[in-house]
Design a protein that fits this description.
The complex is a heterodimer of chains A (514) and B (389). Chain A has 514 residues and is of the alpha/beta class. Chain A contains 15 helices and 18 strands. In chain B, 32% of the residues lie in helices and 29% in strands. The chains are: A alpha/beta (514), B alpha/beta (389).
């Protein structure tokens, strides 16, 4: 087979990207929102500047407040000038991009709005000759179902000769029942292959690198199991607080904000079996198998198997910061957790008996996301240490942010004579930024492009979301009955409550110092 | 006490190298001096964060004269953040009467991420003069870091029968040249020689002039990724290319011929014998395509303010036109447009920064082997240059 036969466009041979999306229209619901302004439109502009968007690409923004197309364009211009990855706004590039931005004013529950939208799409599509549509739900989550239903009623969920897809933002439900309900509603008007559930963590280059690292290097897979691994620690620490999103956070807590989605995604990637191919469903099949094999933590064990924390006032990088209960739109006696540590087991052949410790929190000393694989000690203490202590175990750590890289700790002899060997841990360190000093593209750029191309690998499938909720749900149920811990129980700028240290020490282990 | 003072002096000396100074060393001692340098750097705790030495490839640069060497040095320093390497620069003065060889070591250090560690690449500069030039490979070869790819960047017209060039080729995986720097009247012969080298050996050839086309190729390919553009790809019947000066010289058609060569090799267009009399200024000729023939026109435009290729238009029999051109008032942007007979079409503005030499080199250092699309392109372009002989 020649190379030509494998690609449709012979001019693509040897080029890095294998195709550009077909001309399409992106319809953003919630077009004046924070996400649209900070992430979506800047990402689209950057993609367009790099020539990665197709000719014949348009944006229709939909929101409640009345404004003209040109008012909307100039709002977006301000957003791009402030948030684009490329340094300064290129006036001619902006003008060409903005010419294809439109605004549609409507209440999400008003059927008239969708008729108006349909006629706008018809007009745009008559110019490009293409009928591909991508909806983006960038609205408060309570509108997701409403919008999907209205799109269905208006006959906008499929077009005659083109594709129609819908991107759904996080949070996807607030428990298993609401997530399942949302899935049902979406799937009553769309088919699963039209639905793209976003977890922007998966759009990060480094998260994708976990798979490359595991499956493109022959040396790690053979030791990636219970025979060699003592335990795994996943840390997702943030130094920021809730950034004015008190209303949202009060109802979410770290378990819904981070654990149910991002942390369980990292867990799946670190623990999954090699997929047969790198096709979207092959990868997602393996990921969901991990989630299904996670041993449930029933409500009655929720207290025992988790440690909750909430930050009080403290100091971070020399700055005094307020406690959670002092934040805007947070109850003065709030019981919402801003820190969580938990231990789980994956009951399958590879991982039986290996504990996975996950911790995540706000207002911790620094921002760091890491997966650490802690290997077992050698079977025999061949080298007595001078002070009788045990040699440190080997640790392989994959850092995802901020300084992405991989490092391996191992013991080495300290130079010098003497009967008792002195062994010290040394670190072999690989930093992506060191070997490939380039800025990675923004996660939203990658995910927007993938959804236009119809590649769902980095999006969460229905069964994945539900499996993740099925794990989280009994835990939150278990928390509702007994008295919540006496909050606040950790100072901002520290590594969480003392109970979290005791929690892991009970198993004879300790948290990695990061 | 005296020992401590000595140690401080040694440390100071190495710190000076890491902060950009060059240190002359004895030729046989190059490797041991570098070892000393990294040892001192690892022990140097005064500056807080230790430096990290990183190396993902060997980069051997050849320069005639100090000015070119200085230029190469600057480019390597710019690519070293992305491609930390051991670089060996040969500064040759073959016409000098007496033979001589001197060596010096230096380092390129960067902090790739804010707050991160300092990462350093090492550089060895070998000044060879007179008869020593021909033998300098004997010094270079033992200095290559084993197990890592070797890139030879020949910053000049490569002389196929030159002894040093041949010897260095024998030990390298990639040869990097820039055909924009060749004298136009010799380009065809030189590229033919290079083509032969890649056919007869495992060496991959990289031409920075081809890298200049990457973004153009990407934009051209986009026209035909999907319908309605896709259906015109097999019906193209005219290609027009306009070229401005590059490197301040007379406009050179090579870049344009590579672009046409690429289209021809990908779309199966062939040059019929005798259809073309090669010229160094404007060129116009016909190629045979599946659907008939394609008229090709290359026009140099020395008055255009830009550099190199500045516009391309592709026309299909039915009147569809696909065009890319740099904006005259803003060279960093280009207009990409399609006009289709059914009345649809579009025009957009994309970024088209002129890539620096460091960017081009860096792209080539990313490649890991033969670039089949380039080699097929080159075969076509060479035929256009020598009239299909
Ligand atoms: N912001 C982030 O960084 C971020 C990060 C991850 C995920 N998310 C998710 O993304 C979604 C959007 O977040 P956001 O922060 O951008 O929200 P936001 O700032 O509150 O924006 C809400 C948008 O929805 C529109 N809207 C609200 N009610 C409407 C109605 N009844 N009819 C028509 N339009 C209505 C608003 O239009 P008007 O202005 O005209 O009222 C506004 O454009 C949320 O689900 C959030 O969880 C956000």
């Amino acid at each position: 087979m020649t190379i030509e036969e494998t690609v449709e466009n012979p001019l693509r041979v040897g080029l890095r990207s294998q195709r550009t999306p077909e001309p399409n229209t992106l319809i953003i619901f919630g077009a004046s929102g924070d996400l649209t302004q900070r992430k979506l439109v800047p990402a689209l502009y950057d993609l367009s500047l790099e020539g990665l968007l197709p000719g014949g690409f348009s944006v229709v923004g939909m929101a409640r407040r009345p404004k003209t197309h040109s008012e909307f364009r100039s709002e977006m211009k301000g957003a791009v000038a402030q948030h684009s990855r490329t340094k300064s706004l290129q006036p001619s590039a902006w003008d060409a991009f903005a010419a294809n931005i439109y605004y549609c004013q409507a209440e999400f529950n008003d059927p008239g709005g969708y008729i108006q939208l349909a006629s706008m799409l018809q007009k745009i599509e008559s110019e490009t000759g293409c009928h591909n549509r991508l909806y983006y739900l960038a609205t408060p989550p309570r509108y997701y179902s409403e919008i999907a239903k209205r799109l269905g009623e208006a006959g906008l969920t499929a077009s005659d000769d083109g594709w129609t897809r819908i991107i759904v933002e996080k949070p996807f439900g607030r428990d298993l029942a609401s997530a399942a309900e949302l899935n049902r509603t979406l799937l009553s008007v769309f088919s699963e292959d039209q639905v793209y559930r976003i977890d922007h963590y998966l759009g990060k280059d480094t998260v994708q690198n976990i798979l490359v690292f595991r499956f493109a290097n022959g040396i790690f897979e053979p030791i990636w199991d219970r025979r060699y691994i003592d335990h795994v620690q996943i840390t997702m620490a943030e130094s920021i607080g809730i950034e004015g999103r008190g209303g949202y956070y009060e109802r979410a807590g770290v378990i819904r904000d981070i654990i149910q989605n991002h942390a369980l995604q990292l867990l799946s990637l670190a623990a999954m079996e090699p997929p047969a191919t790198f096709e979207p469903d092959a990868v997602r099949d393996e990921k969901v198998k991990v989630l299904r094999a996670v041993r449930p933590i029933p409500p009655e064990d929720a207290q025992e198997s988790t440690v909750r924390g909430q930050y009080g006032p403290g100091v971070i990088s020399g700055q005094r910061v307020a406690g959670y209960r002092e934040e805007d739109r947070v109850e003065a006696d709030s019981a919402t957790e801003t820190y969580l540590a938990l231990r789980l087991f994956i009951d399958n052949w590879r991982w039986a008996g290996v504990p996975f410790y996950i911790r995540s929190g706000k207002r911790l000393p620094k921002r760091v996301t890491e997966i650490a694989i802690i290997f077992r000690q050698p079977p025999l203490a061949l080298f007595p240490t001078t002070d009788g202590s045990r040699i440190e175990p080997n640790v392989l750590s994959i850092t995802i942010q901020p300084d992405e890289g991989i490092s391996l700790n191992f013991g080495s002899k300290v130079p010098g004579p003497g009967a008792a060997l002195r062994i010290r841990p040394v670190e072999m360190d690989f930093r992506y930024g060191t070997s490939f000093g380039v800025a990675a593209p923004d996660a939203y750029e990658r995910l927007l492009l993938d959804s236009m191309l119809g590649d769902a690998t980095l999006f969460t499938r229905r069964d994945e979301v539900e499996a993740a909720w099925a794990f989280v749900n009994p835990i939150t149920d278990g928390w509702t009955n007994p008295e919540p811990p006496s909050f606040p129980n950790y100072e901002a700028g520290t590594w969480g409550p003392d109970e979290a240290d005791e929690f892991i020490q009970r198993d004879g282990r300790k948290w990695r110092r990061l | 006490m005296a020992e401590a003072v000595d140690r401080m002096e040694v440390l100071d000396e190495y710190r000076a190298i890491l902060s950009g100074e060059t240190r002359r060393v004895d030729v046989p001692a190059v490797e041991s001096e570098l070892t000393q340098l990294w040892k001192a750097a690892a022990e140097d705790t005064l500056e807080g964060q230790p430096v990290v030495r990183a190396c993902v490839l060997n980069l051997v640069g050849y320069a005639q004269g100090d000015d070119v060497a200085q230029h190469i040095n600057e480019v390597i320093s710019q690519v070293s953040a992305r491609h930390p390497s051991r670089s060996i620069i040969i500064v040759a003065d073959p016409r000098a009467k007496s033979a001589g060889l001197r060596a010096s070591i230096s380092a390129h250090c960067q902090i790739p991420l804010a707050g991160g560690r300092q990462v350093c690449s090492e550089q060895i500069t070998l000044h060879a003069s007179g008869a020593a030039v021909d033998e300098v490979h004997g010094t270079v070869l033992p200095l290559l870091v084993p197990g890592l790819p070797v890139f030879l960047w020949w910053h000049d017209e490569p002389p196929p029968d030159n002894h040093l060039f041949q010897e260095l080729l024998d030990s390298c995986d990639h040869l990097v040249i820039d055909s924009a720097d060749f004298a136009p009247e010799r380009t065809a012969a030189l590229l033919t020689d290079l083509q032969r080298i890649t056919q007869e050996s495992d060496i991959a050839l990289s031409d920075l002039n081809w890298s200049r086309l990457t973004h153009w190729r990407e934009l051209v390919a986009q026209f035909f990724d999907a319908s309605p553009g896709r259906q015109y790809l097999d019906r193209l019947d005219a290609v027009n290319v306009e070229i401005a000066s590059i490197h301040g010289k007379q406009p050179d058609l090579t870049e344009g011929l590579l672009l046409i060569g690429w289209l021809a090799s990908r779309l199966g267009w062939v040059l019929e014998e005798g259809a073309l009399r090669p010229r160094l200024d404007a060129m116009s000729f016909k190629l045979k395509s599946g659907a008939g023939s394609v008229t090709v026109k290359l026009t140099p435009d020395p008055h255009h303010p830009g550099e190199g290729l500045h516009s391309l238009s592709l026309r299909a029999a039915d009147g569809a036109v696909f065009a890319i051109s740099r904006k005259a008032d803003d060279e960093t942007c280009g207009v990409v447009s399609a006009e289709l007979p059914e009345g649809s079409g579009y025009s957009r503005v994309v970024q088209m920064d002129l890539p620096s030499e460091a960017t081009l080199l860096s792209d080539e250092l990313d490649s890991s082997g033969h670039d089949a699309a380039f080699e097929e392109t080159l075969a076509q372009a060479v035929r256009f240059m020598d009239g299909g002989q």
